[in-house]
């Protein structure tokens, strides 16, 4: 009896410590991502004037205006100091120019929209009562909007990136899929050498073959074009697709196709009705790899684009150019991460089927 | 009866030295149930796949109902097939699996449903039509494969070791059902198996193959009682026939077969073909149930029991006859004990005699 309790305690202690370790590892991985995400919603004031940084961005900002002999003073509530702190110009009067400046300043620094009329009405209350406290709703997506406004070419570059990803998927999946099918179904001389051979293209870092790549693409007239870039990506992705699809097709018994041949269809029909639906999870996984690979790729894209950069290049350039605007960069980064996440979620079902062990 | 399928001189060569089938001539009559039987690698499955059109024919022609189908696509041959691993399409429901070929033929939906349900009834899966194959047991999957093959009403029905993936009990049940279905539909069938008891129990005629060639074609009785070669006699039967190397001595009207254990005298009238074998060695085959326990005075030879294997309905007794294990079948009622000495004789009308060089049957 006593023994079994001891054993139970030991077991639960072991389990608990395991969970603590796992949770710790998860935290180490997730926390920076979470912070990146959180930063992308913070205003400049939150980003640079509050320390320690708040874990979650605020949804509104609180302001205070008071008045003395020099004029009006604006304060903002600083959450880390838990007090109001001076914000904007040392003092201002109710002239049109001062108020316009102030409204702009609030918009840029605190991401709040307060119109001149509102400020005027607040000022009249200050005149009467001596001070006023008011809060304004923060525009959460201001950083995202601003990023696309200030970063030249960000909008079109997203479209270009999507095009590149789409072309990459199409090229790598069609060629790689066909090759994979051949590797899985037919026997020919030098099959294994060829299969390993296709991996060679993945062994060279993009930078080392950048110059020949540029020259070849230039001769094809495809430099600085989405199609050219996707060709470069597809070269690497095809070998990946070949290996994944070959193993997928190998796992589908030939007799399923043969049965289709006997029961009234030809080879193409058998592939279409039987093999393709069964291989879909694997093909989806391939598509995902191709998408993420091409969507996130920077190095080749920097070398091979000039006036038509892809989105990661735009984010990268914004990152190295700006000395201060961290919250804008995070907004760009999150924008870049989002499509890959969404795409993965959409085809998650198929991936689970593939690595969750679907029985054929 | 009209000939349905005719294989003439067909052969399959995989590479320079590897032959799948060396030479094969076979005529299958209408409504006949033919079993291709042989050890693995004998070419029986290759033969079936050539008939199905899944394997190219290296030489020879295949005629079905008088039409040459040697180079036709599988779907144009008017055949259907049950695969060894069932080959049920896992992403389709049972109904879709069975209806696949009918849908491709653009048959009206109502008729498809009717035919599928009829066939499902016949193989007893009518409740499973909306399920996916993954939810079925092996036996049920087998029935789906069977229904899918039956629903097209083929001229020729091919079955490639369809029962080998089932457990032993289910195999025996399905064997009976398959035969009943065959009797009901009357579809001309070719059945491939390596299980001789399956072949014996189902076949109208058995085609025994070895190394890509036919060794014997005949009814179950033919191959059992008149085995064409040592190979056939040793392949058919549980346990298979026992063999003795004997010396043939012909003296006038008497023929004596001798070896170190016994001298067997047989009358010349029954074994006229033996005339040429005077002074030569031949092989004597005897089936386990044709060895009898007799009185000491009538015994041909005696031996101690090595092992007794009770089977319920009968018992199999193994004897060690000069380092040669001989098995015999004894009725269950006979009380035997390990190390008992048995006095034995052969049933004279059940002797199988084979040439020791060619291993072919003499009598």
CATH architecture of the largest domain in chain B: 3-Layer(aba) Sandwich
Beta strand count of chain B: 20
Q: In terms of per-residue confidence, which ranges of chain B show pLDDT below 50 for 5 or more consecutive residues? A: none
Any idea of the CATH topology of the largest domain in chain A? MetI-like fold
One letter per element, helices H and strands E, the order of chain B comes to EEEHEEEHHHEHEHEEHHEEEEEEEEEE
Question: What is the CATH architecture assignment of the largest domain in chain A?
Answer: Orthogonal Bundle
User: Describe the biggest sheet of chain A?
Assistant: 4 strands, antiparallel
**Assigned CATH class of the largest domain in chain B:** Alpha Beta
Spatial arrangement of strands, main beta sheet of chain A: 3-2-1-4
Tell me, what's the shape of chain B? Answer: elongated
| Mean pLDDT over the residues of chain A | 88
Briefly say what this structure is:
The complex is a heterodimer of chains A (360) and B (363). With 360 residues, chain A is of the alpha+beta class.
């Amino acid at each position: 009896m006593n023994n079994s309790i001891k054993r139970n305690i030991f077991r639960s202690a072991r389990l608990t410590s395991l969970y603590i370790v796992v949770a710790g590892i998860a935290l180490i991985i997730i926390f920076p991502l979470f912070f990146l995400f959180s930063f992308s919603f913070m205003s400049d004031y939150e980003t640079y004037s509050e320390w320690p940084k708040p874990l979650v961005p605020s949804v509104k900002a609180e302001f205070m205006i008071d008045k003395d002999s020099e004029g009006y003073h604006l304060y903002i509530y600083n959450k880390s100091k838990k007090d109001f702190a001076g914000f904007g110009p040392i003092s201002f009067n109710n002239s049109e120019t001062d108020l316009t400046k102030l409204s702009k300043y609030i918009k840029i620094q605190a991401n709040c929209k307060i119109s001149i009329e509102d400020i005027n009405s607040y000022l009249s209350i200050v005149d009467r009562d001596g001070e006023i406290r008011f809060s304004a709703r923060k525009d959460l997506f201001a950083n995202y909007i601003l990023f696309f406004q200030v970063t030249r070419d960000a909008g079109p570059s997203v479209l270009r990136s999507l095009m590149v990803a789409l072309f990459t998927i199409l090229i790598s999946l069609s060629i790689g899929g066909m090759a994979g099918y051949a590797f899985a179904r037919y026997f020919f001389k030098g099959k294994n050498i060829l299969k390993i051979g296709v991996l060679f293209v993945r062994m060279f870092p993009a930078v080392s073959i950048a110059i020949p790549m540029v020259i070849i693409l230039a001769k094809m007239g495809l430099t600085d074009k989405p199609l050219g870039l996707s060709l470069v990506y597809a070269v690497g992705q095809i070998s990946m697709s070949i290996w994944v699809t070959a193993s997928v097709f190998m796992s589908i018994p030939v007799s399923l196709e043969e049965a289709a041949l006997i029961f009234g269809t030809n080879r193409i029909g058998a592939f279409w009705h039987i093999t393709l639906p069964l291989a879909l999870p694997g093909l989806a996984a391939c598509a995902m790899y191709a998408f993420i690979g091409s969507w996130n790729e920077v190095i080749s894209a920097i070398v091979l684009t000039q006036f038509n950069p892809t989105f990661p290049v735009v984010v990268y350039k914004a990152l190295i150019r700006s000395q201060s605007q961290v919250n804008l960069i995070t907004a760009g980064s999150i924008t870049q991460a989002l499509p890959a996440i969404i795409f993965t979620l959409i085809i998650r079902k198929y991936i689970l089927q593939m690595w969750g062990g679907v029985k054929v | 009866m009209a000939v349905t399928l005719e294989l003439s001189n067909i052969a399959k060569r995989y590479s320079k030295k590897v032959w799948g089938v060396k030479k094969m001539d076979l005529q299958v009559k209408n409504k006949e149930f033919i079993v291709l039987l042989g050890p693995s690698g004998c070419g029986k499955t290759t033969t079936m796949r050539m008939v199905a059109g899944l394997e190219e024919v290296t030489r020879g022609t295949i005629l079905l109902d008088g039409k040459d189908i040697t180079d036709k696509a599988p779907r144009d041959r008017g055949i259907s097939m049950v695969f060894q691993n069932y080959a049920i399409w896992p992403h389709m429901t049972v109904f879709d699996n069975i209806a696949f070929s009918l849908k491709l033929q653009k048959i009206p939906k109502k008729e498809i449903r009717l035919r599928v349900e009829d066939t499902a009834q016949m193989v007893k899966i009518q409740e499973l039509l909306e399920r996916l194959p993954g939810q079925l047991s092996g036996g049920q999957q087998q029935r789906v494969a069977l229904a899918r093959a039956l629903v097209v009403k083929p001229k020729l029905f091919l079955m490639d070791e369809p029962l080998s993936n089932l457990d032993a009990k289910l195999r025996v049940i399905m064997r009976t059902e398959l035969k009943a279905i065959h009797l009901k539909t009357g579809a001309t069938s070719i059945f491939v198996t390596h299980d001789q008891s399956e072949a014996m129990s189902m076949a109208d005629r058995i085609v025994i193959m070895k190394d890509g060639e036919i060794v014997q074609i005949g009814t179950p009785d033919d191959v059992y009682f008149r085995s064409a070669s040592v190979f056939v006699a040793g392949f058919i039967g549980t346990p298979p026939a026992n063999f003795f190397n004997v010396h043939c001595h012909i003296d006038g009207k008497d023929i004596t077969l001798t070896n170190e254990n016994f001298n067997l005298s047989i009358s010349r009238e029954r074994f006229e073909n033996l005339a040429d074998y005077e002074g030569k060695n031949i092989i004597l085959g005897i089936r386990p149930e044709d060895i009898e326990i007799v009185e000491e005075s009538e015994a041909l030879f005696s031996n101690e029991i090595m092992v007794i294997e009770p089977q319920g309905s009968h018992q199999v007794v193994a004897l060690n006859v000069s380092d040669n294990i001989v098995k015999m079948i004894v009725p269950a009622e006979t009380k035997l004990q390990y190390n008992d000495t048995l006095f034995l004789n052969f049933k004279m009308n059940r002797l199988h005699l084979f040439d020791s060089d060619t291993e072919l049957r003499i009598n």
